[in-house]
Each structure stands twice: as C-alpha cells, then as structure tokens.
Amino acid sequence: MQAPFFQLSLLFTSRPYPTTSKLFSSATAGTPRGRCVARPSTTTPISPSLPDSAITAFEDYQRLFSSQPTESVDPLPLVVTEGSLPADFPLGTYYLNGPGMISDDHGSIVNPLDGHGYLRAFRFIGGGVVMYSARYVETEAAKEEREAKTGEWRFRQPGLFSLLKSHMRAPGLKLLKNVANTTVLRWGGRLFCLWEGGHPYELEPTSLATIGPTDIIKTVDGRQSGGGEVLKLAAGITKPLLCGYDWPSSRLDPSFMNADKQALPHLVKILIELDAGGSDLFCSIADSSIHWKKPADFPVINPSMSGKSNRFMYANSTSGSNKFLPHFPFDTIVKFDSYNDIVKTWCTENRMFIGEPMFISKGTKHEEDGYIIVIEYAIFRQKCYLVVLDAKRIGDEDAIVVKLEVPEHLSFPFGFHGFWDKK
C-alpha cells in the first residue's frame, strides 16, 4: 500500500486526537461491565461538500482512526438503509479485526498499528437480519493499559511503536505490546485474533469473550499420540544470504516505494510451456498492470477457487478524486477479469472510504456467483455501514444489494483484516 509523506505524517503526528470519553461514562451505577452503553459524540459532523484541501484531508484521516471505547456484548440488529438482504443469502459470521483504542482518556495517542485489538462480528442469521457485536481482545497489554474498575485507558508509552514497561526482572527493558489487532481466523472450530509479532489470542466465537493467548505451534509440533505424524517446522534449510542495495543518493524516501510511478511494483504474468521432457517450448510475458495503474491492496477471490485456476479477482483501490489523499484511504472496489483483461469498478460517495473486501460464495459452480461485503466509513456522517455488493454487477449502477447501518454510538475506526465463517 503506497503512502506519501503527507499521509505518513498523519499516521505519526504528535497532535492529540480528540480525547475520548471514559468507557461507560454515561452508565448508571448498576450497569454491568462490558454492556453496550451509548457514549456522547466527541466530534461534530462535517459537510461532505467541503472543498478538497489539506485541512479537510487531515480531518478525514483523523476521524477514520478515531477511538471507540464502547463495546457491544449484547448483539444488536443492524438497520437497512438501502436495498434488502436476499432470502437465500448464506448464513454465517463476518469477523473484522482492527484497532479500536488509538487515543486514550488522557490525550495520548499511538500509531493505529499499535491500537488495541477490537473484534467486530456481523452475524447473518436469516430472514434478512444481521446482528452486530464488538469487544476488545483482552490481551495482557489491554489489561495493563485499561483500568478494570473504571474502564479508563492510559497508554504506558504513547507514540510511534508503542511499548510497555517491563516488570521486576528487567526494569530497564521495554517490550513491544501484543495488541492482537491485525487479523482474525476461524481454524479447527476455534477463533483467533492475530498479531504479526506474537502469539494469537483465542476468543469464544459467539460471545467474543477472550479465552487467552495460545501457542498453536507447540500444540501440533512433533508426534501425535494416535500414531500419526505432523510435519515439523524447519528453518535455515539453505545457506544464509546477505542482500545489499545500491543507495547512491543520501535522500531519505519516507515511502517504501519508488517515487517514480513507472518504477512502482506491478504484476507481470510469465507463461512457460514445456514439452514431455521438461524443455521449454514457448515463453510469453504480459504486463497485467497496464489495465489498472492505480494502487490496489487487499485482493480476494472466490474461496472455492483457492488453489485452482481462477478468472476473477477483487481488490481495494482508489478513484484518485481526492487530491490530498490520492492513494489511501481506499474508496473503490476493483474487479479484474484475467481472461479478457477487463477491469470494472464500484466507488463510494465523496469523503467515504472502504475497508478490505470479502467474497461470499453462493455455493454454485459459477465463480462469479456470489457477494462482496465491505465496510464503508462515512466520515462526514460519523457512521459505518456494512455494504453487500453483487459480484456479477460490479461496474453497474445497481451493484449494491443492501446497505446496513451500524448504530452511530458504535461506529468504529478503520479495520484491518476479516474472515467469513460460513454456518
């Protein structure tokens, strides 16, 4: 995902976010911990017609990563604002993980990558009904930074690469905190929230209550008591390699990509035909990026085509209509047809952004027969929507099947990765 310096400065800025209210601040004394309690709005709505400017872009970016201290333990039905959910829509749960707490109750902020994991669940239960619930992953870091009695958050080490202070054994050591905010996975009947630098946390799939950290590798490594064997993980099977880079310029590029758009990473297809003896007969090279030159991320296909030759691929991209946020956040779903190199798109409205798309198959033999679900962030309305698109109709005006609104007091910041768990 490409991000120019302006966008990185928004992520890493030291300017405090609007201070969030204390968790359950509007609750009565008898309110049980973890129940859904409305919080007062910390910001005022903004007009979608404001001119495109650096200030407007900055405000949009901040609001996209505003904290949500409120949890919804008891599932709530989402309200349909457009269209209707088909009666034959597959039953299941769409889980979405991402940061929920980015600015604490004392004005401190952390990078969104270090925000505490906030798991959201959208349950399609039939009859056109979708139930919503959300809870924080109770990691050790969350327990240390959230007061158990009051629900108040206080970051121990705010700023870029937020850290935790170590304990008695090494008081001078600071530790990276496992916030379990990156992705979510249903595996072997169990639900896990993952972070790229530590053990996954297991949660109860229905209540979203945290069970605790787990070491999956230890539980499967080695010989099983039943006599079967599991492949042992291996590392260092080749000689160590040292890679060097020719860096003739002393200029620091804040982006990990080349400033020259023509030199940006792009997709190239190489087809090699072999004879019976393994010798090559023909080789063709095609640059697939010539059909879509804008940044794209979060690719997804029909999961039933995993490991097979698939035709369609869907991804996030940008329309480029925002001069000051040209690459991210995303506002477009791109549909690639690899057979005839046709690209079709669906875009949100002005000053609205979208998260990772998810393909839900109808269970037929046709690869294109299914739905794309995606979260739409209406920044100027301070609301989030669950949008269902007909995968076949992407590119047409009637691509939206249904749009459902998350209650305003439960609107959440930008999510990272999700998972569809069919019933």
TrEMBL record:
Taxonomic superkingdom: Eukaryota
Q: Name one GO biological process term.
A: carotene catabolic process
Task: Give the residues the record marks as binding Fe cation.
Answer: 417
Among PANTHER family, the record links this protein to: BETA-CAROTENE DIOXYGENASE, CAROTENOID CLEAVAGE DIOXYGENASE 7, CHLOROPLASTIC
Q: Does the keyword Mitochondrion apply?
A: no
Stored InterPro entries: Carotenoid_Oase
Q: Which gene encodes it?
A: CCD7
Per the record, the similarity remark reads: Belongs to the carotenoid oxygenase family.
**Which Pfam families has this protein been placed in?**
RPE65
State the GO CC annotations: chloroplast stroma
Q: Which GO terms describe its molecular function?
A: 9-cis-epoxycarotenoid dioxygenase activity; metal ion binding
How many cofactor units bind, and how? Binds 1 Fe(2+) ion per subunit.
Q: What is this protein called?
A: Carotenoid cleavage dioxygenase 7, chloroplastic
What cofactor does this chain's UniProt record say it requires? Fe(2+)
Q: Which UniProt keywords apply?
A: Dioxygenase, Iron, Metal-binding, Oxidoreductase
Q: Which organism is it from?
A: Dendrobium catenatum
